[in-house]
Amino acid sequence: MGDGWTMRKMWVGAGVAVALGMGFVMLLVVGVYLVAGNGAGGGAKRLAKGSVPAAYQPIVQKWGNLCPAINPALLAAQLYQESGFNPRARSAAAAQGIAQFIPGTWATHGIDGDGDGDRDVWDPADAIPSAASYDCSLASYVKDVPGDPTENMLASYNAGAYAVIKYQGVPPYKETQNYVRVITTLEKSFAAPTGRVDPSEQAAGAIAYAQKKLGTPYLWGGTGTAEQGGRFDCSGLTKAAYESVGIELPRVANDQYNAGPHPGREELLPGDLVFFSDDLTNSRAIRHVGIYVGGGYMIDAPRTGAVIRFDPIDTPDYFGATRVTEDGAKALPTTV
Predict the structure, then answer these.
(1) Which of 69, 145, 191, 307 has its CA 20 to 30 A from that of 234?
(2) pLDDT one-digit tens code per residue, 52-110
(3) Which distant-in-sequence residues (6+ apart) come within 8 Å of 213 by Cβ?
(4) Closest-CA residue to 315 (of 329, 302, 330)
(5) Distance CA 264, CA 106 (A)
(6) Is 304 exposed, middle or buried (0-12, 13-18, 19+ CB in 10 A)?
(7) Cα 164 to Cα 187: distance, rounded to the nearest angstrom
(8) Rounded to whole angstroms, what are the CA distances from 311 to 44, 159, 213, 227, 278?
(9) pLDDT (tens digit, 9 = 90+) per residue, 164-197?
């Protein structure tokens, strides 16, 4: 009976592999090369599931609606880029807290957001409202400047309102233009999509790369180098797969989550990154990532002692997904 059960398992395994292969090919044809509708757009922006740590989500949602020039997703993008939602962050330039205020700016623009009688730059309940208030103040300074009011506000944050007024819009400074582009692009990764999200043109190539690594032993910290024997950990594999098609992702899984918009479970297409966490309210707690291939399966590097393989995604720790975009990946800060 034992031998029969072993043979049966082998045939079942082979059947699953064939089915996965066929499903993968069909879904790539139907999904990745499908001309999909436009991405998220229009209407009030809601924060994507877990994109902001649960402790800060209500504050960002509330204060992100303080004025028309900002929204919760835009405010979240600023906080993420400034500190990675770290309330104890401190920069070499003496910027402090989750919103990275320098002392002079805090002295002028810091507010008592939680009404407890003090203005504490290290307290997100003060710092997040202060960031929103400062954004809105900047927007009011440049309200008569032609162009997009949000872009003019962001340019003022980076280069000063005087420069925006002088140039009657985003000034011709490369750093400022890049800052505006980065924040407005990152905004899409914090907003819940309101429509279909375009599939990545590079998705098929990323999956093809990952397929070639099936059976490779897992290595903690592995990025596939020759010195590591071509082995990977979970985010090392996804990073290498997208690098093979020209998209540079961050090294760790919880930053990779912000490399594009977030399709729902029923909207997944091959090539989407799928994420797993023990805290389903906080993307910063994500601990695992794989590449979706269709049929409810992903290719992933699971853990020490295992090999790169197909695994199901519908588990209790499934967090969500990201449809990687080149612009979204480029917008991610190199350090948070």
Answers:
(1) 191
(2) 999 999 999 999 999 999 999 999 999 998 899 999 999 988 999 999 999 999 999 99
(3) 224, 230, 232, 237, 299, 308
(4) 302
(5) 39
(6) exposed
(7) 21
(8) 36, 48, 14, 27, 18
(9) 999 999 999 999 999 999 999 999 999 998 888 8
Q: Using an 8 Å Cβ cutoff, are 187 and 154 in contact?
A: no
CB 324 within 8 A of CB 257: no
Tell me how crowded residue 256 is: count the other CB atoms within 10 A of its CB.
Answer: 24
Tokens of 324: 């990687």
What pTM was computed for the model? 0.82
Q: Give the largest Cα separation in the chain, rounded.
A: 84
CB 122 within 8 A of CB 97: yes
Contact 248, 178 (CB under 8 A): no
Whole-number Å distance between alpha carbons of 131 and 109: 8
